Amino acid sequence: MDHFAGLDVSVKETSICIVDETGRIVGEVKVASEPEALLQVLMNPAYHFKRIGLEAGPLSQWLFSALGEAGLPVICVETRHMRAVLKAQINKTDRNDARGIAQMMRVGLYRPVHVKTLRSQKLRMLLTHRKLLQSKAIAIDNDLRGTLRNFGLKVGMVGKVKFEARIKELFEEVGVPEKYKVYEETAYQRIMGMIKQIPEVEVKPTYGGEPAVLQRQVFKTFLDKIYKRTK
To answer: What is the value of pTM for the model shown?
Structure first.
């Protein structure tokens, strides 16, 4: 006897409903939205699946690939078409949605969606993130140009290779490095004065253990790591 399954996938859990060719429910379970958990249920030798349906969504490509590689007849269903069918239900729950998807698979009332291969998905991800990084880099460049322009500093027509050198050149023209050195030295001396005022007293741990002494050298070590650094 052929069986049909409906998977209502959410981020954490997936509701599974299994029906036979007469429409009778033979199994219902809720598992984690992980390929291993789904395969543990769907690879049961007691079931002979003809179609397994899941709605197109954020996790559908990942789960579709995993179930397909396991040899299961999985079908990814178009979201709007499935929503139009399932909205006729009185009670909208994950369990009932899984039941509705299983019945849709049984009667053939679905519109399949093409799922790209894993390689295509990886290439698309790389291109998308490359475009994102490019847009962020351009936005930072434009912000720097706009900020400097408020003080009469014009970057001009400079390419990516010479952009950083041009920014440093403008900073040097207005004396930013010298001013920063004065500020850094003043701040360093002020913080060192605060560190010297810290009393080296014995500190008792909150959750037991041996008492320890809070030493000023710890704070001085952290301060020296950022003092006069070039990067």
So the answer is: 0.60
